Predict the 3D structure of the following.
Amino acid sequence: MKKVRFYCQHILGMGHLIRSVEIVRGLIPDFQICFVNGGQVIEEFEFPREIEVINIPAIKTDSEFTELTPVDDSLTMSELETIRTKILLETCDRFQPDILIIELFPFGRRRFSFELIPLMEKAKAMGAKIVSSVRDIVVTKQDQQRHEEKVCRLINKYFDMLLIHGDPDFVKLNLSFSRIDDLNCPVHYTGYVVQPVPKPQKIDNKPLILVSVGGGRFGHDLLECVAHTAPILKDKIPHYLQVFTGAFSPDEVLVKLQQITKNLDNITIERYTPNFLNYMQQADLSIGMSGYNTTMNILSTGVKAMMMAFQGNNDKEQETRLKKLDSLGRVKMIQPEDLHPEKFAEQIISYLQQDKTELSLNLDGVNNTAKYIKQLTKQKQLV
């Protein structure tokens, strides 16, 4: 059985990790998998039992991506870089991958070149093929021309394939990266990567509004607005509000929200659930941030949704996707100026009464990714 090593570095939210693990699930029937997780460990998060998981000492960042910091504050970044690189190279020697898949790099995560360049050099020397795995929209930079030149140079030096996990009929990568035609490796759109929708399980008999903000390191203004909106909604709609603040949400955020809502019986504030899709299936409305995975969950479950875009670090990824979905009538876009309890309550009540537009996108990214990886293993390595 051929071997695949998958490198994933999530530094702010959970989206990169969730998408990467879904891709890996699709590879399990045909490959032996070693998954490298460079981000903070989430205790409740379940990896497939069939794969080997290596959690290297974790790195995180703030919502403006101003600096990288160790999750373990007893280590300096210099020490951490040395430790991580050593682990990556030693475990690569042991595992001997046929395919190395690197999520996002070099379109992002170039600050991790300290470990990724040595890793790719070693993998190439072993005869492994290297794949870049990216979402439909990548982050743009202030000096976009210089950024794209670096991406082209790295792709053309190290990579054997680029997989774009999106549907070109909805949005093309060209929208955020203009030089696809200058890449020498094969480029494939896989369709969107979605989590499988579980069999419906009744959670509560009350009609439900689900509120979430991904990993929980941002979106706190939205959560606080929902908490203050709950008493206004109490006597106007029969719905119960289930709020998840996210696995990485600061303790003080969770405590503050629970304090605001402690005397209300129409809202519950919790940090995280591994059964998120069960709640989304039952919900009449989902309110949250418009990250890749939450958006795909909304499309796959068919739930009505109100969404707000993360815009830290001048990142337009979520806003770009959300504006298009809003223009097509599939979701309602929340603007920062909407976050006033009376106004927000009116919008929720109004939107619950509206019909949503159905949208057909290619959501078969998991199966198509596996197909392209299998094709790559059959090609002869060029020396």
Q: What stands out?
A: Residues 2 and 351 are 50 Å apart (CA to CA). The first strand starts at residue 2 and ends at 8. The mean pLDDT is 93.
